[in-house]
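Before the break, one more example. Copy the sequence into your notebook; we will annotate it together after we see the structure.
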Amino acid sequence: VRSMSSKNRPILAIVVPCLDEELVLPETTKTLGGKLSSLVERGLIDPDSRIYYVDDGSTDGTWAYISELVKSSRQFRGIKLARNYGHQYALYAGLMHAKGDAIISIDADLQDDINAVDEMVERYLEGNEIVFGVRDDRQTDGVFKRWTAALHYWVAARFGIKTIPNHADFRLMSAKAIAMLGEFREDNIYLRGVVPMLGLKSCVVYYARGVRFAGESKYDLRSMLGL
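Here is what the structure looks like once it is written out:
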């Protein structure tokens, strides 16, 4: 187990890609900020832990909100991409720029269970370099979403790509894992396939996925086919 003395608590960074998420960000900020504070109070992470919002070329008030938030709270940081590069690139950019001993990636829509973060940090402190967040079921998905998800994993397997079933991009990675990820120079980065290839000690945390708090999903049919 990694040291838990006050001088050696890990700095945690939470990376959140955002595309036109003006409606959800106030609630996301409240929820993530509260979770970070509770982890600090429990003595699991360093008070210098931060949340990084990555604006992936939003056309609404997303960046304006992030800019004001960064000015008012040292708990948050903002990264603005020059244009819309897509979810995987935005997430990758956040992972490469965030500073921390461990970095958790999570979407802004609050569908991933934020309470699973506690167990992710605990598993990291036990020595795991990567902790995958895995859905325990897909009951909140419609028939089309469940069908395309199953097709996605089947096609990936046929191409010999090692993926974690029912895992998207909700995961914790150590600084060592992030450094190894940075060595990849893919033209079309596919984090769900690359991260398991790193070969580091890893484990799985199961959670129940909820419904989107507000706004609309940015993963339409075109995005699903592109992924």
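The first strand starts at residue 12 and ends at 18. The chain has a mean pLDDT of 88. Try to locate both features in your own notes.
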